[in-house]
Amino acid sequence: MNIEHAQNLTEQETMASATANSNAAAAVTQLLKASTAKGAAKVKELEDLKALLNADNDTILKNIEQTINLKAVIEKQLAERCWLNLQEASAPVF
User: How far, in Å, CA of 5 to CA of 55, rounded?
Assistant: First the structure.
């Protein structure tokens, strides 16, 4: 994969993320408008929605942490393999 292709993928992912965020906000707004709850029931509904969103945020943060850890492991393995390849390349041939 070349740099231009990687940049194009990143731009596409950014645009898709922005669209998804917009769609998610619209879905929440539509959900709130569709609700007929009043008073305490409305408060409970909003608290439940907030709890759901907090749980989603926690899941996303855990996924980010796992991704960062995986990246570190992959980078370490790549560095080790590069080092081994250099050692093999510099070894004398008999």
Answer: 34
Q: What is the DSSP string of 20-51?
A: HHHHHHHHHHHHHHH----HHHHHHHHHHHHH
Write out the two tokens for 37. 């709850």
Residue type, 27: A
User: What's the CA gap between 25 and 18, in Å, rounded?
Assistant: 11
Burial of 13 (0-12, 13-18, 19+ CB in 10 A): exposed
Question: Average pLDDT of each block of 10 consecutive residues along the chain (94 residues)?
Answer: 60 69 82 84 90 95 97 94 81 67
Under 8 Å between Cβ of 35 and 42: yes
Hey, where are the domains in the chain?
Answer: 1-34, 37-94
